[in-house]
Protein backbone atom coordinates (compact mmCIF):
# COMPACT_ATOMS: atom_id res chain seq x y z
CA UNK A 1 0.00 0.00 0.00
CA UNK A 2 1.13 3.54 -0.77
CA UNK A 3 2.87 5.55 1.91
CA UNK A 4 0.38 8.30 2.90
CA UNK A 5 2.80 10.35 5.01
CA UNK A 6 2.66 13.12 2.38
CA UNK A 7 -0.79 14.02 3.73
CA UNK A 8 1.05 15.50 6.75
CA UNK A 9 2.90 17.99 4.54
CA UNK A 10 2.26 21.64 5.44
CA UNK A 11 0.56 22.22 2.05
CA UNK A 12 -2.57 20.49 3.37
CA UNK A 13 -5.29 21.30 5.87
CA UNK A 14 -7.04 18.75 8.10
CA UNK A 15 -9.98 18.35 5.69
CA UNK A 16 -7.65 17.29 2.87
CA UNK A 17 -6.37 14.17 4.64
CA UNK A 18 -9.94 13.29 5.63
CA UNK A 19 -11.09 13.72 2.02
CA UNK A 20 -8.33 11.47 0.69
CA UNK A 21 -9.06 8.75 3.24
CA UNK A 22 -12.81 8.82 2.59
CA UNK A 23 -12.33 8.69 -1.20
CA UNK A 24 -9.71 5.95 -1.01
CA UNK A 25 -12.06 3.83 1.06
CA UNK A 26 -15.05 4.55 -1.25
CA UNK A 27 -12.99 3.81 -4.38
CA UNK A 28 -11.74 0.52 -2.89
CA UNK A 29 -15.36 -0.60 -2.63
CA UNK A 30 -16.81 0.88 -5.83
CA UNK A 31 -14.08 1.35 -8.45
CA UNK A 32 -11.83 -1.23 -10.07
CA UNK A 33 -9.27 -0.99 -12.87
CA UNK A 34 -11.50 -3.27 -14.95
CA UNK A 35 -14.50 -1.61 -16.59
CA UNK A 36 -17.21 -2.77 -18.95
CA UNK A 37 -15.88 -3.05 -22.52
CA UNK A 38 -18.17 -0.26 -23.86
CA UNK A 39 -16.05 2.73 -22.84
CA UNK A 40 -18.89 5.25 -23.41
CA UNK A 41 -21.15 3.35 -21.07
CA UNK A 42 -18.35 2.85 -18.56
CA UNK A 43 -17.78 6.63 -18.48
CA UNK A 44 -21.46 7.44 -18.11
CA UNK A 45 -21.68 5.00 -15.20
CA UNK A 46 -18.58 6.45 -13.54
CA UNK A 47 -19.87 10.04 -13.85
CA UNK A 48 -23.18 9.00 -12.29
CA UNK A 49 -21.42 7.11 -9.47
CA UNK A 50 -19.01 9.97 -8.74
CA UNK A 51 -21.90 12.45 -8.77
CA UNK A 52 -24.19 10.37 -6.54
CA UNK A 53 -21.40 9.84 -4.01
CA UNK A 54 -20.72 13.61 -3.87
CA UNK A 55 -17.16 13.59 -5.29
CA UNK A 56 -18.05 15.74 -8.31
CA UNK A 57 -19.08 18.54 -5.95
CA UNK A 58 -15.31 19.13 -5.60
CA UNK A 59 -14.85 19.56 -9.38
CA UNK A 60 -16.78 22.86 -9.41
CA UNK A 61 -17.14 25.92 -7.18
CA UNK A 62 -20.07 27.84 -5.69
CA UNK A 63 -22.16 26.40 -2.88
CA UNK A 64 -25.37 27.70 -4.53
CA UNK A 65 -24.59 25.34 -7.46
CA UNK A 66 -24.08 22.27 -5.31
CA UNK A 67 -20.30 22.62 -5.04
CA UNK A 68 -18.34 21.50 -2.00
CA UNK A 69 -16.96 25.02 -1.53
CA UNK A 70 -17.38 28.64 -2.56
CA UNK A 71 -14.13 28.64 -4.55
CA UNK A 72 -12.13 25.98 -6.34
CA UNK A 73 -9.97 23.96 -3.93
CA UNK A 74 -7.05 22.95 -6.13
CA UNK A 75 -5.54 20.71 -3.47
CA UNK A 76 -8.81 18.80 -3.12
CA UNK A 77 -9.05 18.38 -6.91
CA UNK A 78 -5.45 17.13 -7.02
CA UNK A 79 -5.93 14.67 -4.15
CA UNK A 80 -9.10 13.32 -5.76
CA UNK A 81 -7.39 12.88 -9.13
CA UNK A 82 -4.35 11.25 -7.56
CA UNK A 83 -6.51 8.84 -5.55
CA UNK A 84 -8.84 7.95 -8.42
CA UNK A 85 -5.87 7.47 -10.79
CA UNK A 86 -4.40 4.94 -8.35
CA UNK A 87 -7.63 2.96 -8.59
CA UNK A 88 -8.62 3.53 -12.24
CA UNK A 89 -7.49 5.80 -15.06
CA UNK A 90 -11.03 5.96 -16.42
CA UNK A 91 -12.48 7.06 -13.06
CA UNK A 92 -9.87 9.83 -12.91
CA UNK A 93 -10.77 10.81 -16.49
CA UNK A 94 -14.51 10.95 -15.66
CA UNK A 95 -13.86 13.22 -12.66
CA UNK A 96 -11.31 15.44 -14.41
CA UNK A 97 -13.47 16.09 -17.46
CA UNK A 98 -16.44 17.23 -15.36
CA UNK A 99 -14.11 19.85 -13.89
CA UNK A 100 -12.23 20.82 -17.06
CA UNK A 101 -15.42 20.82 -19.17
CA UNK A 102 -17.29 23.10 -16.77
CA UNK A 103 -14.27 25.11 -15.52
CA UNK A 104 -14.88 28.07 -17.84
CA UNK A 105 -18.51 28.34 -16.64
CA UNK A 106 -17.35 28.04 -13.06
CA UNK A 107 -14.69 30.74 -13.34
CA UNK A 108 -16.30 33.15 -15.85
CA UNK A 109 -19.92 32.10 -16.45
CA UNK A 110 -22.96 34.32 -15.78
CA UNK A 111 -25.30 33.50 -12.87
CA UNK A 112 -27.79 32.03 -15.38
CA UNK A 113 -25.13 29.85 -17.05
CA UNK A 114 -23.86 28.62 -13.68
CA UNK A 115 -27.37 27.77 -12.52
CA UNK A 116 -28.21 25.99 -15.79
CA UNK A 117 -25.12 23.76 -15.96
CA UNK A 118 -23.12 23.44 -12.74
CA UNK A 119 -25.66 21.68 -10.47
CA UNK A 120 -26.18 18.98 -13.12
CA UNK A 121 -22.40 18.60 -13.53
CA UNK A 122 -21.99 18.18 -9.76
CA UNK A 123 -24.76 15.58 -9.57
CA UNK A 124 -23.30 13.62 -12.49
CA UNK A 125 -26.44 14.24 -14.57
CA UNK A 126 -24.75 16.27 -17.34
CA UNK A 127 -21.43 15.30 -18.93
CA UNK A 128 -19.06 18.15 -19.83
CA UNK A 129 -16.38 18.63 -22.52
CA UNK A 130 -13.70 21.24 -23.25
CA UNK A 131 -13.19 21.95 -26.96
CA UNK A 132 -10.06 24.01 -27.62
CA UNK A 133 -7.77 22.00 -29.95
CA UNK A 134 -8.14 21.89 -33.72
CA UNK A 135 -6.44 19.83 -36.43
CA UNK A 136 -4.11 22.79 -37.21
CA UNK A 137 -4.06 24.34 -33.74
CA UNK A 138 -2.86 22.08 -30.92
CA UNK A 139 0.22 23.44 -29.14
CA UNK A 140 -0.28 26.68 -31.09
CA UNK A 141 -3.76 27.40 -29.71
CA UNK A 142 -3.88 30.95 -31.04
CA UNK A 143 -3.80 29.57 -34.61
CA UNK A 144 -7.38 28.34 -34.21
CA UNK A 145 -9.68 28.78 -37.19
CA UNK A 146 -13.09 27.65 -35.93
CA UNK A 147 -15.15 30.85 -36.26
CA UNK A 148 -18.15 32.33 -34.47
CA UNK A 149 -19.84 35.20 -36.33
CA UNK A 150 -22.37 37.41 -34.58
CA UNK A 151 -25.78 37.58 -36.26
CA UNK A 152 -28.27 39.60 -34.18
CA UNK A 153 -28.95 37.73 -30.94
CA UNK A 154 -27.09 34.66 -32.16
CA UNK A 155 -23.61 33.45 -33.06
CA UNK A 156 -23.03 31.16 -36.05
CA UNK A 157 -20.23 28.60 -35.58
CA UNK A 158 -18.28 27.07 -38.45
CA UNK A 159 -15.18 24.87 -38.24
CA UNK A 160 -13.73 21.85 -36.46
CA UNK A 161 -12.36 20.82 -33.09
CA UNK A 162 -10.38 17.65 -32.50
CA UNK A 163 -9.06 15.41 -29.70
CA UNK A 164 -12.11 16.37 -27.65
CA UNK A 165 -12.43 14.16 -24.59
CA UNK A 166 -16.01 13.09 -23.88
CA UNK A 167 -16.73 13.90 -27.55
CA UNK A 168 -19.79 11.84 -28.44
CA UNK A 169 -21.12 11.39 -24.90
CA UNK A 170 -21.04 14.96 -23.54
CA UNK A 171 -24.29 16.82 -22.90
CA UNK A 172 -22.58 20.18 -23.51
CA UNK A 173 -19.27 21.44 -24.88
CA UNK A 174 -17.37 24.60 -23.95
CA UNK A 175 -16.14 25.62 -27.40
CA UNK A 176 -13.48 28.25 -28.12
CA UNK A 177 -13.90 30.04 -31.46
CA UNK A 178 -12.48 32.99 -33.31
CA UNK A 179 -14.69 36.08 -33.04
CA UNK A 180 -12.08 38.42 -34.52
CA UNK A 181 -12.09 41.43 -32.15
CA UNK A 182 -8.29 41.50 -32.58
CA UNK A 183 -5.79 39.22 -34.32
CA UNK A 184 -4.43 36.07 -32.66
CA UNK A 185 -5.21 35.20 -29.04
CA UNK A 186 -7.18 38.42 -28.44
CA UNK A 187 -9.86 37.55 -30.98
CA UNK A 188 -11.21 34.35 -29.40
CA UNK A 189 -14.41 33.83 -27.36
CA UNK A 190 -15.80 30.92 -25.35
CA UNK A 191 -19.30 29.44 -25.88
CA UNK A 192 -21.48 26.71 -24.44
CA UNK A 193 -22.87 24.44 -27.16
CA UNK A 194 -25.45 21.84 -26.14
CA UNK A 195 -25.25 18.39 -27.74
CA UNK A 196 -27.92 18.04 -30.40
CA UNK A 197 -27.80 21.70 -31.50
CA UNK A 198 -28.54 21.73 -35.27
CA UNK A 199 -25.34 22.24 -37.30
CA UNK A 200 -23.17 20.52 -34.67
CA UNK A 201 -22.11 16.93 -35.26
CA UNK A 202 -19.54 14.35 -34.21
CA UNK A 203 -17.42 14.07 -37.38
CA UNK A 204 -15.27 11.16 -36.16
CA UNK A 205 -14.71 9.03 -33.08
CA UNK A 206 -10.98 8.54 -32.33
CA UNK A 207 -9.53 5.34 -30.84
CA UNK A 208 -6.49 5.81 -28.59
CA UNK A 209 -4.08 3.54 -26.69
CA UNK A 210 -5.90 4.02 -23.39
CA UNK A 211 -9.53 3.99 -24.56
CA UNK A 212 -11.81 6.81 -23.50
CA UNK A 213 -14.46 8.80 -25.39
CA UNK A 214 -12.62 11.08 -27.84
CA UNK A 215 -13.89 12.77 -31.00
CA UNK A 216 -13.49 15.32 -33.76
CA UNK A 217 -16.35 17.81 -33.78
CA UNK A 218 -17.77 19.67 -36.77
CA UNK A 219 -19.77 22.93 -36.74
CA UNK A 220 -21.58 23.81 -39.95
CA UNK A 221 -23.73 26.95 -39.68
CA UNK A 222 -24.41 26.04 -36.05
CA UNK A 223 -26.55 28.79 -34.45
CA UNK A 224 -26.47 29.40 -30.72
CA UNK A 225 -27.98 32.25 -28.66
CA UNK A 226 -25.50 35.04 -27.86
CA UNK A 227 -26.35 34.38 -24.19
CA UNK A 228 -24.31 31.16 -24.52
CA UNK A 229 -21.08 33.17 -24.76
CA UNK A 230 -18.97 32.85 -21.60
CA UNK A 231 -17.51 36.16 -20.44
CA UNK A 232 -16.67 39.07 -22.73
CA UNK A 233 -16.18 38.76 -26.49
CA UNK A 234 -12.46 38.43 -27.28
CA UNK A 235 -11.60 37.13 -23.78
CA UNK A 236 -11.83 33.42 -24.65
CA UNK A 237 -8.09 32.80 -24.60
CA UNK A 238 -7.86 34.18 -21.06
CA UNK A 239 -10.85 32.02 -20.06
CA UNK A 240 -9.12 28.93 -21.50
CA UNK A 241 -5.80 29.71 -19.79
CA UNK A 242 -7.49 30.36 -16.40
CA UNK A 243 -9.21 26.96 -16.69
CA UNK A 244 -5.97 25.25 -17.66
CA UNK A 245 -4.15 26.92 -14.75
CA UNK A 246 -6.34 24.89 -12.39
CA UNK A 247 -6.38 21.66 -14.31
CA UNK A 248 -2.75 21.55 -15.50
CA UNK A 249 -1.65 21.01 -11.88
CA UNK A 250 -4.28 18.30 -11.58
CA UNK A 251 -2.79 16.45 -14.59
CA UNK A 252 0.40 16.27 -12.52
CA UNK A 253 -1.66 14.80 -9.67
CA UNK A 254 -3.16 12.14 -11.95
CA UNK A 255 0.34 11.20 -13.14
CA UNK A 256 1.35 10.94 -9.50
CA UNK A 257 -1.52 8.53 -8.84
CA UNK A 258 -0.44 6.33 -11.76
CA UNK A 259 3.17 6.39 -10.50
CA UNK A 260 2.18 5.49 -6.93
CA UNK A 261 0.13 2.55 -8.20
CA UNK A 262 3.11 1.41 -10.30
CA UNK A 263 5.42 1.58 -7.27
CA UNK A 264 2.90 -0.45 -5.21
CA UNK A 265 2.78 -3.07 -7.97
CA UNK A 266 6.60 -3.06 -8.25
CA UNK A 267 7.06 -3.53 -4.49
CA UNK A 268 4.70 -6.49 -4.48
CA UNK A 269 6.45 -8.05 -7.44
CA UNK A 270 9.95 -7.41 -6.10
CA UNK A 271 9.21 -8.89 -2.69
CA UNK A 272 7.33 -11.90 -4.07
CA UNK A 273 9.17 -13.01 -7.20
CA UNK A 274 11.66 -15.81 -6.51
CA UNK A 275 14.75 -16.10 -8.71
CA UNK A 276 18.34 -17.31 -8.31
CA UNK A 277 17.51 -18.55 -4.79
CA UNK A 278 16.24 -15.24 -3.43
CA UNK A 279 13.58 -12.66 -4.24
CA UNK A 280 13.95 -9.90 -6.83
CA UNK A 281 14.09 -7.23 -4.08
CA UNK A 282 17.26 -8.83 -2.64
CA UNK A 283 19.26 -7.67 -5.64
CA UNK A 284 20.89 -4.25 -5.30
CA UNK A 285 20.01 -3.47 -8.92
CA UNK A 286 16.35 -3.78 -7.95
CA UNK A 287 16.86 -1.73 -4.78
CA UNK A 288 18.44 1.08 -6.81
CA UNK A 289 15.40 1.08 -9.11
CA UNK A 290 12.93 1.16 -6.20
CA UNK A 291 14.87 4.00 -4.56
CA UNK A 292 14.83 6.01 -7.77
CA UNK A 293 11.11 5.42 -8.26
CA UNK A 294 10.22 6.49 -4.70
CA UNK A 295 12.45 9.57 -4.85
CA UNK A 296 11.03 10.64 -8.22
CA UNK A 297 7.49 10.27 -6.87
CA UNK A 298 8.22 12.42 -3.80
CA UNK A 299 9.89 15.11 -5.94
CA UNK A 300 6.89 15.16 -8.28
CA UNK A 301 4.46 15.24 -5.34
CA UNK A 302 6.30 18.19 -3.75
CA UNK A 303 6.09 20.19 -6.98
CA UNK A 304 2.45 19.23 -7.54
CA UNK A 305 1.21 20.17 -4.10
CA UNK A 306 3.33 23.30 -3.99
CA UNK A 307 1.58 24.49 -7.18
CA UNK A 308 -1.86 23.49 -5.83
CA UNK A 309 -1.25 25.17 -2.47
CA UNK A 310 0.10 28.30 -4.14
CA UNK A 311 -2.97 28.56 -6.37
CA UNK A 312 -5.24 28.14 -3.35
CA UNK A 313 -3.39 31.12 -1.77
CA UNK A 314 -4.54 33.18 -4.76
CA UNK A 315 -1.09 33.39 -6.32
CA UNK A 316 -0.18 33.08 -10.00
CA UNK A 317 1.10 29.57 -10.70
CA UNK A 318 2.02 29.62 -14.38
CA UNK A 319 5.62 28.50 -13.79
CA UNK A 320 4.90 26.24 -10.82
CA UNK A 321 2.03 24.40 -12.58
CA UNK A 322 4.25 23.88 -15.64
CA UNK A 323 7.09 22.52 -13.44
CA UNK A 324 4.65 20.18 -11.71
CA UNK A 325 3.11 18.85 -14.92
CA UNK A 326 6.46 18.44 -16.65
CA UNK A 327 8.08 16.61 -13.73
CA UNK A 328 5.14 14.47 -12.63
CA UNK A 329 4.23 13.18 -16.10
CA UNK A 330 7.82 12.47 -17.17
CA UNK A 331 8.62 10.84 -13.79
CA UNK A 332 5.48 8.72 -13.91
CA UNK A 333 6.42 7.44 -17.36
CA UNK A 334 9.84 6.35 -16.04
CA UNK A 335 8.42 4.82 -12.85
CA UNK A 336 5.80 2.85 -14.77
CA UNK A 337 8.36 1.64 -17.29
CA UNK A 338 10.64 0.46 -14.46
CA UNK A 339 7.69 -1.31 -12.77
CA UNK A 340 6.71 -3.04 -16.01
CA UNK A 341 10.30 -4.23 -16.49
CA UNK A 342 10.21 -5.94 -13.06
CA UNK A 343 7.20 -7.96 -14.17
CA UNK A 344 9.13 -9.44 -17.11
CA UNK A 345 6.81 -11.10 -19.63
CA UNK A 346 3.80 -10.62 -17.37
CA UNK A 347 4.29 -6.85 -17.65
CA UNK A 348 3.22 -6.76 -21.28
CA UNK A 349 0.16 -9.01 -20.93
CA UNK A 350 -2.99 -7.09 -21.86
CA UNK A 351 -4.95 -5.62 -18.95
CA UNK A 352 -2.31 -6.41 -16.32
CA UNK A 353 -2.20 -3.35 -13.99
CA UNK A 354 1.28 -2.25 -15.14
CA UNK A 355 0.40 -2.77 -18.82
CA UNK A 356 -2.68 -0.59 -18.35
CA UNK A 357 -0.64 2.10 -16.56
CA UNK A 358 1.95 2.00 -19.35
CA UNK A 359 -0.75 2.91 -21.88
CA UNK A 360 -2.60 5.33 -19.61
CA UNK A 361 0.32 7.61 -18.76
CA UNK A 362 1.40 8.30 -22.33
CA UNK A 363 -1.14 10.95 -23.34
CA UNK A 364 -0.54 12.98 -20.17
CA UNK A 365 2.85 14.05 -21.55
CA UNK A 366 1.02 15.52 -24.57
CA UNK A 367 -2.31 17.04 -23.56
CA UNK A 368 -2.89 20.31 -21.71
CA UNK A 369 0.48 21.41 -23.07
CA UNK A 370 3.13 18.90 -24.17
CA UNK A 371 6.34 18.55 -22.15
CA UNK A 372 8.18 20.83 -24.60
CA UNK A 373 5.50 23.51 -24.18
CA UNK A 374 5.90 23.31 -20.38
CA UNK A 375 9.67 23.75 -20.79
CA UNK A 376 9.07 26.88 -22.87
CA UNK A 377 6.62 28.27 -20.31
CA UNK A 378 9.11 27.76 -17.46
CA UNK A 379 11.96 29.36 -19.41
CA UNK A 380 9.75 32.29 -20.50
CA UNK A 381 8.77 32.98 -16.87
CA UNK A 382 12.42 32.76 -15.74
CA UNK A 383 13.59 35.15 -18.44
CA UNK A 384 10.72 37.57 -17.80
CA UNK A 385 11.54 37.66 -14.08
CA UNK A 386 15.23 38.25 -14.86
CA UNK A 387 14.39 41.10 -17.24
CA UNK A 388 12.08 42.76 -14.71
CA UNK A 389 14.85 42.55 -12.11
CA UNK A 390 17.31 44.31 -14.43
CA UNK A 391 14.94 47.19 -15.07
C1 LIG B 1 -5.90 11.62 -25.28
C2 LIG B 1 -6.01 13.08 -25.58
C3 LIG B 1 -7.07 13.83 -25.05
C4 LIG B 1 -7.20 15.17 -25.36
N1 LIG B 1 -8.29 15.87 -24.88
C5 LIG B 1 -8.48 17.16 -25.26
C6 LIG B 1 -9.67 17.88 -24.88
O1 LIG B 1 -10.52 17.36 -24.15
N2 LIG B 1 -9.84 19.14 -25.35
C7 LIG B 1 -8.93 19.75 -26.16
O2 LIG B 1 -9.16 20.89 -26.54
N3 LIG B 1 -7.80 19.10 -26.56
C8 LIG B 1 -7.56 17.82 -26.12
N4 LIG B 1 -6.43 17.15 -26.52
C9 LIG B 1 -5.50 17.81 -27.45
C10 LIG B 1 -4.15 18.15 -26.83
O3 LIG B 1 -4.25 19.23 -25.98
C11 LIG B 1 -3.19 18.36 -28.02
O4 LIG B 1 -2.95 17.09 -28.58
C12 LIG B 1 -1.89 19.01 -27.58
O5 LIG B 1 -2.10 20.36 -27.24
C13 LIG B 1 -0.84 18.92 -28.69
O6 LIG B 1 -1.35 19.39 -29.89
P1 LIG B 1 -1.17 18.53 -31.23
O7 LIG B 1 -1.69 17.16 -30.97
O8 LIG B 1 -1.77 19.30 -32.35
O9 LIG B 1 0.38 18.41 -31.41
P2 LIG B 1 1.35 19.51 -32.07
O10 LIG B 1 0.93 20.87 -31.65
O11 LIG B 1 1.49 19.20 -33.52
O12 LIG B 1 2.70 19.16 -31.33
C14 LIG B 1 3.38 17.94 -31.59
C15 LIG B 1 4.60 17.87 -30.72
O13 LIG B 1 5.47 18.93 -31.05
C16 LIG B 1 6.26 19.25 -29.92
N5 LIG B 1 6.20 20.71 -29.74
C17 LIG B 1 5.12 21.48 -29.62
N6 LIG B 1 5.48 22.77 -29.48
C18 LIG B 1 6.84 22.79 -29.54
C19 LIG B 1 7.80 23.82 -29.50
N7 LIG B 1 7.44 25.10 -29.34
N8 LIG B 1 9.12 23.48 -29.62
C20 LIG B 1 9.49 22.19 -29.78
N9 LIG B 1 8.62 21.18 -29.82
C21 LIG B 1 7.31 21.47 -29.71
C22 LIG B 1 5.68 18.49 -28.72
O14 LIG B 1 6.44 17.32 -28.48
C23 LIG B 1 4.32 18.09 -29.22
O15 LIG B 1 3.84 16.92 -28.61
C24 LIG B 1 -6.25 15.80 -26.19
C25 LIG B 1 -5.18 15.05 -26.71
C26 LIG B 1 -5.05 13.71 -26.41
C27 LIG B 1 -3.90 12.95 -26.98
TrEMBL record:
Positions of the Acyl-CoA dehydrogenase/oxidase C-terminal domain: 234-383
UniProt family annotation: Belongs to the acyl-CoA dehydrogenase family.
UniProt xrefs under SUPFAM superfamilies: Acyl-CoA dehydrogenase C-terminal domain-like, Acyl-CoA dehydrogenase NM domain-like
Cofactors: FAD
Residue ranges of domain Acyl-CoA oxidase/dehydrogenase middle in the record: 129-220
InterPro entries linked: Acyl-CoA_DH_CS, Acyl-CoA_Oxase/DH_mid-dom, Acyl-CoA_Oxase/DH_mid-dom_sf, AcylCo_DH-like_C, AcylCo_DH/oxidase_C, AcylCoA_DH/ox_N, AcylCoA_DH/ox_N_sf, AcylCoA_DH/oxidase_NM_dom_sf
PANTHER family reported for this sequence: ACYL-COA DEHYDROGENASE (PTHR43884), BLR3437 PROTEIN (PTHR43884:SF22)
UniProt cross-references to Pfam families, sorted A to Z: Acyl-CoA_dh_1, Acyl-CoA_dh_M, Acyl-CoA_dh_N
Protein name: Acyl-CoA dehydrogenase
Alphabetical UniProt keywords: FAD, Flavoprotein
Gene3D superfamilies hit by this protein: Acyl-CoA dehydrogenase/oxidase, N-terminal domain (1.10.540.10), Butyryl-CoA Dehydrogenase, subunit A, domain 2 (2.40.110.10), Butyryl-CoA Dehydrogenase, subunit A, domain 3 (1.20.140.10)
Residue ranges of domain Acyl-CoA dehydrogenase/oxidase N-terminal in the record: 15-125
Amino acid sequence: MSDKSYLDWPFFEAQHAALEQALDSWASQHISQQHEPDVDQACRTLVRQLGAAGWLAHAIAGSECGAAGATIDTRAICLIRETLARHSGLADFAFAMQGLGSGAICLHGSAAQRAAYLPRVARGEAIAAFALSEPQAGSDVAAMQCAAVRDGDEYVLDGEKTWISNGGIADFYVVFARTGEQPGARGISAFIVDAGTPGFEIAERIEVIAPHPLARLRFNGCRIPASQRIGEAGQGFKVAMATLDVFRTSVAAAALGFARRALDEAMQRATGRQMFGQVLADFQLTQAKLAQMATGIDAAALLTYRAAWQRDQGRIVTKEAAMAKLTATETAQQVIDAALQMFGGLGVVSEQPVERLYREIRALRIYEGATEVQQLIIARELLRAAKNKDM
